[in-house]
Amino acid sequence: MGVEETGGPAAPLLPQPTPPQSAPPCYGVPVAAAAFQDPYFPDPPAYVLLPVYPRRRRQRCGCFSCCGSLISSSSTLLSAAFFLVLLSSAFFLWPSDPVVTVTRFHLEDIRVTPPPLAAIGISLRVDLRVRNPDFFSLDHRSIVVSIGYRGRPLGSVTANGGHIKARGVSHVHAKLKIDGIRVWNDAIYLIEDLARRSLPLDTVTEVDGRMRLFFVDVPVQGKISCLVSVNPETRELINQDCYPEVSYLTSVTK
User: Fold this and answer.
1) How many Cα atoms occupy the beta-carbon half-sphere of 95 within 13 Å?
2) Within 13 A of 24's CA, how many CA atoms are on the CB side?
3) Reported pTM
4) Which of 6, 89, 171, 211 is most buried, most CB within 10 Å of its CB?
């Protein structure tokens, strides 16, 4: 009994083996060794995850930065202190006008001629007190005393100058003599004043000087105005009202 052979290949009795598949890619990080039993990871590494913080720049207080801030603060304080010292020095050292005070009016003689001549003759002596309020000496060149009647100038006299030490006082005497000055425009007022026995006179005293401020000569001037009422018959002084005149800059700084 023979076996019949066929021309085709023999039919397989077992299923074809499947080709081995490659391991899938790993995108995670293992946290435990028991989670992976694959032979491709025999000894999985251990990782520790830390939060990421933004990196901050540490402000270093080095020598230059600390010293720079200290120098800047010290410079500001020194500038403010220097400015205050400068203002104080300007306040105390800035030259002021001399203070002039009339201590006494002495009417030696007065002659009033009624209209139609309408003339006035006066002999007047003025005692002055000049005070230097500054910290520098004062050289006053002249002292001018002028007199008037109802705003009309009658005459003036100039006294010699002198020297006043720093914050010192000087006494000056001036004598004014006027002979027969006619006042035609004020003849009516002159009649009224003679009837009331009160003759109003106005005087202005000016002191011109220079003050040596370091290397600069600064001009200063003191001025005082007075309103005086005299009795033409008895030559007595009835009333005296004086007020000093100071410059605006002097009144602000002192």
Assistant:
1) 20
2) 4
3) 0.61
4) 211
Which residues lie below 8 Å from residue 120, measured CB to CB, with a gap of 6+? 110, 111, 112, 113, 149, 154, 178, 180, 181, 182, 183, 190
Say if CB 28 and CB 45 are below 8 A apart. no
One digit per residue, the tens of pLDDT, for the chain of length 254 reads 444 444 455 555 555 666 665 555 544 455 554 454 555 455 555 665 666 556 655 555 555 555 556 667 777 878 777 777 777 666 666 778 899 999 998 888 888 888 888 888 999 999 999 999 888 888 888 899 999 998 888 989 888 888 899 889 999 888 888 888 888 788 888 889 989 999 999 999 999 988 877 778 888 889 999 999 999 888 888 999 998 876 544 444 44
- Which domains can be identified in the chain, with CATH numbers? 99-253 (2.60.40)
Handedness of CA 79, 80, 81, 82 (dihedral sign): positive
β partners of residue 119: 113, 182
Task: Give the separation between CA 240 and CA 230, rounded to whole angstroms.
Answer: 9
Encoded amino acid at 242, one letter = C
Give dist(CA 97, CA 253) in Å, integer.
Answer: 11
